[in-house]
Specification:
The protein is of the alpha/beta class and about 350 residues long. The protein has two domains: about 280 residues, Glycosidases (TIM Barrel, Alpha-Beta Barrel), CATH 3.20.20; about 70 residues, no CATH class. An eight-stranded parallel β-barrel has the order 1-2-3-4-5-6-7-8. The longest helix has 17 residues. The chain is globular, with a radius of gyration of 20 Å.
Length: about 350
């Protein structure tokens, strides 16, 4: 079973441009990618300053992108992170949230995601407060699909270290309180999971009371450590059989829009080919399709340096490679050159303030 595939622009750091979004959606739509969720961490009007309304120019750009998605048969979604709203015990938040929802609803999104990720959650009543916010939002949105990202969206203990110990039974409680039609994001056993197994997904589905909606953190490369690497290799650890255990499969792409298309293509192959899937061959095909045969082969030869070794460990070779790729008039090569030049470096401070 091939699940619904889509893109979730949900990374920290420099966001994509409007043109890059439109072109990437158009490229991937014929390859089975049927939804796009706009949720870049850099958009303060959706996150830390969520009560602020988007300026007219940005709303116009969002409306144009939404129309582009509809023309391609792709669902357009908005991800709203009402930052730490669930920490407010009173009910004086309703007017501000209603105003924000009405503003976003003017875009007529197909999907509305309410995102509670990367916020403190170590207190009793977390599930109850978040469920109330989601129900409030669902009642005021014309979106035909509502998705929620729990505060603890993975089994990974790093979330407890960063945002406080998760309340006992949190996931189960939230799942019971939410309308059964509401989808729930899940990143797997880890924040950046190396593998999803049917057994793991079946257990999570039982906890949630519904199949998890995968938020797959590959090939994303935000953060101080990951921004030093280009995640280019084909998808692995996602056996096609997991399609029966999930509601949909969303990919959080890399900061580099053109290069992100390479692994994105291989995920579609992974599901379509099943047991016949050959990840190395899938990478070669995808790299050639995205970059052309010659540049695709060159990138393949440098994957070890870019993905495994990383920019910060290349030494003098970094500048040699940067000059080599800068001389190639292809947007994918220009992304490599810009990455080698440090254009996509992400700091811990930036992550903590976006």
């Amino acid at each position: 079973m091939i699940p619904e595939l889509g893109l979730i622009e949900g990374f920290f750091g420099r966001p994509w441009s409007w043109r890059e979004r439109a072109e990437t959606i158009e490229f991937l739509a014929p390859r089975g990618y049927r939804f796009y969720l706009y949720a870049p961490k850099a958009d303060g009007c959706l996150r830390r300053n969520w009560q602020d309304l988007h300026p007219d120019a940005e709303m116009e750009a969002l409306a144009t992108l939404a129309a582009h998605c509809r023309k391609l048969g792709v669902r357009f979604g908005i991800g709203l992170s009402p930052f730490e709203l669930h920490l407010q015990p009173g009910r004086d938040w309703q007017d501000a949230l209603a105003r924000k929802l009405a503003h976003l609803d003017a875009l007529r999104p197909d999907d509305l995601a309410i995102l509670f990720d990367d916020m403190r959650g170590d207190f009793d009543g977390l599930a109850e407060r978040q469920a109330a916010i989601v129900a409030f939002a669902a009642e005021r949105s014309r979106a035909t699909r509502i998705i929620v990202c729990p505060s603890y969206y993975s089994d990974d203990p790093i979330l407890d270290s960063a945002f406080g110990k998760r309340p006992d039974g949190y996931l189960e409680r939230l799942g019971k309180l939410l309308d059964p039609a509401v989808e729930m994001f899940w990143t797997g056993p880890e924040v950046c999971s190396r593998e999803f197994s049917p057994g793991h997904l079946a257990r999570v589905a039982e906890q949630m009371g519904r199949k998890p909606f995968l938020w797959d953190n590959y090939p994303v490369n935000d953060g101080a450590r990951m921004s030093q690497h280009l995640h280019l290799r084909a998808f692995t650890g996602r056996a096609a059989e997991i399609g029966r255990h999930i509601a949909a499969h969303g990919v959080n792409p890399a900061s580099q829009p053109v290069l992100s298309r390479i692994p994105a293509l291989t995920l579609a192959d992974n599901y379509a080919e099943g047991a016949r899937y050959d990840y190395a061959a899938a990478f070669r095909r995808a790299a050639a399709e995205v970059l052309g045969p010659e540049l695709g082969k060159q990138i393949g030869g440098d994957v070890l340096a870019f993905q495994d070794r990383g920019r910060d460990r290349l030494g003098a070779r970094c500048e040699v490679l940067r000059e080599r790729y800068a001389a190639i008039p292809h947007p994918g090569a220009q992304e490599v050159a810009a990455w080698l030049g440090g254009q996509w470096n992400v700091t811990d401070e930036l992550v903590q303030t976006q």
